[in-house]
Structure formats: C-alpha cells, structure tokens
Amino acid sequence: LGSVQEWFGKIGKRLFKKKYNHFVPHRLDQYLRYLRYLVLVWVLYTTATTAELFFSDLDPYFALFNFWTGEVAIGGLIILGITLLASLLVERLWCKYACPYGAILGITNLFRVFSIRRSDPGCKGCNICTRDCPMNIKVHAVNVVRDHQCITCLECTSEALCPIDNTVVFATRGGK
Predict the structure, then answer these.
(1) Of the candidates 4, 44, 89, 99, which lies 20 to 30 Å from 14 by C-alpha distance?
(2) Cα–Cα distance between 150 and 134 in angstroms, integer?
(3) pTM above 0.85?
(4) Segment 92-127, tens digit of pLDDT
C-alpha cells in the first residue's frame, strides 16, 4: 500500500507542487498522528474479544491485494479509495494517520539502534531536511530523530538531500 500511495503522491506533487503534503493544518496534524494508536488498540481489542480478524473488512491493504479474489468487503474498498485519493494531497496518509502496523513501528522507533542523526557543527540551518521530510518531522531541530512518525525513508540524509556531507546520516549511537 505504501508504494501505491507514493505513486499517487508523485502525481500530487506534480499537481500541487510546494503545497503538497501541507494541506492538513499543523495543529490538526499533531492530533491525527495519534489516531493510528487508537486504531491499533481497537484492532487488538476487537481481535482478542471476537477471535476473528475483524479489521480485514476495513483494511485498505487487504482490499488492494485481494481485490480480484472477491473476498473484499465494501468498507475496505471505500477506505482504500479514500486513502488513494487523499494521497494526492498528503504523503502516505494511511501510514501517517491510521495504520496499526505503523503504530507498532512507531513504538519501536523509540528503541532502535540505528537512527537518523544530525551533526550540529555541519548544519548550516537551510532546513531542507525538514522541508522535504514526507512525515513532516522537524529534522533540523534535533540531533537524533526519535520521532514515532519516522519511517526511515532516509530522504533527509546527506546521501539523498542534505547539501553538506555527513551532516544528516543514518548511523548507530556511536555515529558509524
């Protein structure tokens, strides 16, 4: 689903240019980012109490990859359609706001060995790393990105974007 959202996102970037991924007001975005944790709790609770994989009827991932089998519920197709259309406006909308698996990964971000690190002395304050982060993380404001929204796409790193070598890198705690 992430790849398909990215394809729609590429179209959205061409249509909306710099406005792309900035349609959701910052204050609302900050609240919506925690919605996926509520979805995770709901999925775990419902699955545990019913002993059924209840979420598959609403899961856009399931709908996308089982579309041709006839096993897809209308709710899943509706959520898939909304997700893909909204991906024209917001990068990785499902991953950012509603994915229960993304919630689990967000929790593990707090404890990972490898992380994105920014070197203060090398940073010139251009904020390109923050501006181009698909998850709208303020990379320029921290030395180590431990944000629960980071998907480790590495688009903010010196290898991909930062104009100063070895300023924003993906490394271990020791920096290597």
Answers:
(1) 99
(2) 9
(3) no
(4) 999 899 999 999 988 988 888 888 999 888 888 899
Copy the structure tokens of residue 88: 């024209």
Query: How many whole angstroms separate alpha carbon 96 and alpha carbon 29?
Result: 9
CA 97: distance to chain centroid?
A: 8
Nearest to 5 by CA among 102, 146, 116, 73: 102
Q: Which residue has the higher pLDDT, 161 or 25?
A: 25
Residue 141 to residue 110: CA distance in whole angstroms: 17
Long-range contacts of residues 3-6, Cβ cutoff 8 Å, at least 24 apart: 4/64, 4/84, 4/87, 5/83, 5/84, 5/87, 5/91, 5/92, 5/93, 5/94, 5/95, 6/87, 6/91, 6/92
Cα gap 131→122, rounded to integer Å:
18
